[in-house]
Specification:
The protein is mainly α. It folds into two domains: 1-72; 78-239, no CATH class. The chain has ten helices and no strands. The longest helix is centred in the C-terminal third of the chain and has 42 residues, at 198-239. The protein starts with 13 loop residues before the first helix and ends with a helix.
Length: 240
């Protein structure tokens, strides 16, 4: 399906991008970019925040629904930006989005005492356990490994870790954490009888769709950009 948004280029104003697709606000937050963008272009904002403009454009176009084509040559230096972005995503999920969704589910259960509402709560708790384990693995194993590779190679130190661990293990460990969200949405849309909680159900569904949107891009960044880049670096270090 063709994207309804246009291809983003470096001389476009960031404010115009936001007006066209408000999800770009979330992307800026993941990058750690403040929202007072004034009349600045993508290139100017990237320069101010020490971000490779090609990384910004690639991520922004993913948010615009434009599929990533591995034509851009990212560098090892870009890994720090990418990891920082993904860590900020994790913080957003754990500290903001999941608690908000949990509150909506709890409120639906208070208003609608049917057994099916408890099923949604059970599904979401299973999802939280699965996604927390996934994010903990990334934060505690994968990202420190990549950062260590970066620091050692930058200072021309021996890189022994590359023979003890590989990002390929991460790729094998990488599970689909979006499937349960679809199950919950299906329950809410197709099967759960409604009882005096339409507005809460709407808010919950909007939150689930927003989370799914961001998670999908998060997964594309990891699978199609981060992993291939680290694999390439690993091969170079093994040869060196």
């Amino acid at each position: 399906m063709q994207s309804k948004y246009k291809m983003i280029i470096a001389d476009l104003k960031v404010s115009d991008l936001i007006m066209e697709n408000y999800y770009i606000i979330l992307m800026l937050e993941h990058f750690g970019i403040q929202l007072n963008v004034q009349e600045k272009t993508v290139e100017e904002v990237c320069l101010e925040n020490n971000i490779n403009v090609e990384v910004f454009l690639t991520f922004a176009n993913l948010f615009n629904g434009i599929k990533y084509i591995p034509a851009t040559e990212f560098t090892f230096e870009d890994l720090q930006t990418i990891i920082g972005y993904l860590k900020n995503c994790h913080h957003y999920y754990i500290e903001e989005k999941y608690p908000k969704i949990r509150r909506y589910i709890k409120r639906i259960h208070e208003l609608n005492k049917l057994p099916e509402t408890k099923l949604i709560e059970t599904f979401f708790n299973e999802y939280i356990n699965e996604v927390t384990a996934h994010l903990d693995y990334e934060n505690n194993v994968v990202f420190p490994y990549i950062t260590n590779l970066f620091n050692q190679s930058k200072h021309l130190l021996p890189v022994s870790d590359v023979n003890l661990y590989s990002v390929t293990e991460y790729k094998d460990h990488h599970s689909d954490i979006e499937e349960k969200l679809t199950d919950i949405k299906n329950l809410l849309i197709k099967y759960l009888p409604q009882h005096n909680e339409q507005n809460v159900r709407r808010k919950l569904l909007f939150s689930l769709f927003e989370l799914e949107y961001d998670l999908n891009i998060h997964s594309q960044i990891e699978d199609n950009i981060l992993v291939p880049l680290v694999e390439k670096v690993e091969q170079q270090l093994k040869k060196g």
